[in-house]
Here is the input.
Amino acid sequence: MNKRWKKRDAAKEEIVLLLMSELNIGRTLASLLVQRDVKDLESAKRFFRPQLNDLHDPFLMKDMDLAVTRLQDALESGERILVYGDYDVDGTTAVTLVFSFLKNIGASCEFYIPDRYEEGYGFSFRGVDFAASEGITLIITLDCGIKDTEKIVYAKQKGIDVIICDHHNPDQIPPAYAVLDPKRPDCAYPYKGLSGCGVGFKLLQAWCLKRDYPMEALFEYLDLLTISIGADIVPITGENRVLAHYGLQQIGLKKRPGIEAMLFQSGFKKPGLNITDVVFVLAPRINAAGRIFSGMQAVQLLLSETIESALKISPALEENNNQRKHLDKEITKEAVEQVLSDPKHVEKFSIVVYSETWHKGVVGIVASRLVETFYKPSIVLVKDGDKLTGSARSIDGVDLFDALSACSTYLQKFGGHTMAAGLTLSIDHLEPFKNAFDNEISSILHQQLPIQQIEYDAEIDFDEVDEKFHRILRQFGPFGPSNMNPVFLTRQVVNDRFTKTVGDTKTHLKLHIKQKKGGNKTLDGIAFNLGEWSEHLLSGGEADILFTLEENEYRGNVTLQLNVKDMRESVVHEVSQG
Here is the structure.
């Protein structure tokens, strides 16, 4: 698949020069900082030294006073509280965080994770019935609830108050006792990018402030919040960046037994974790519990108080993850074949595939694989009783929530974010929905079939990549959405030695390269799914490459390497516009 390379907008020259002088750094690093809204010495200090004191006042969130007062009333009168969360990483980490904190301050509480297959996503009638049968009078929903007006009304009829802690876009504000959601239109909270776990954290932060309770007791749970931030693909800017910075430190210093058990089970041996490790090592194992078995299993693991008890649960999550990977591979293969079997697939602006036999737990992953393969908004549907249910994933420039809203005539239920969503529809509406969705995507893209675009931040030569450059660049992290690891362009690289294809299918490329023009600096690199370039390089060909810088650890040795994102034959003219 051809990809367009495009240079990000240049930073303002006068601000770049100011930072170069004030911070004693080179032009490239100064430009990268300006792109991240760092414009002077003071904002640079805040960027490089995140402080928990910089967290926003939680009482700026709409309904926070109501929520804290209701929670305190429940604590003082000994009411039973149910902590209810979704079965994904965000939901299960949120439940673990809020339930653990409430238990530690003496609350009478239980936790509940819905069954993906019998109850589906969100707040459920069965969950309300469970609460009523247990004499529970207050439910705190985490990462769900904003779309569940009927269930909120049902809970009220049962004499149960509900505090919603959610971060999804609301259609309407449910009649809950309190609705905490920074994305509700009437909420003035200054940071809109919190995860569902983050909204639960803000509720507890507000309670601590109101009760003059030591905030350090709450900060002990930042490891869980950081996992939710990494897994839920929320922006790692502002408040999230502060929280993730300290959460990663905490994971590195003192691992929660459940986290330690997962790392042991996975064979992970690095001394510390970064957000990439959270996303690719911890998150899939937590997610696999809800996808294959039950999200309750993940919460039980994260609640483990000793490594011995955690190691009794973690093998089951590892097995679930192995099964998930097998299903992912098989269903992705079938889904790709289904797309290719349509002679008109090239002309279409979107992908919607369906099978009665696919496993519901991996449809979101498969939708992501289809986006990677075809670079089109993709929906994967399975049969669920007398209806279809599934997951959608998007591409840059296409807001899935808006696109599904435009097709809501054909949907029974939908919800989600810009890049990911879930939906339910009747089987009879499948074909008209597919047509309506493709027309909507076509309209959004102005009838131009999408071409994947890779934006790069700066063009550099290898000689610029020294110890100081990398040391400062490392401090830009934690990396993630809206603060991605910078992508660099380097021209005219050639093989030095040792370049070879690697991997079971020889589809990846291990590089040892240098620049043709001047200098003898050589750098190692890895280029996933670019193995076809080995012949070009080994025969003396030149290439322009896009890459990020990362640390590679092998047998205890840490070295700098390039992670090559794309490669093309060297050209003399400027390639920034594709």
Remarks:
- Residues 307-340 form the longest helix (34 residues).
- Confidence is low (pLDDT under 50) at residues 573-578.
- The domain at 454-569 is CATH 2.40.50.460 (OB fold (Dihydrolipoamide Acetyltransferase, E2P)).
- The chain has three domains: 58-254, 342-444, 454-569.
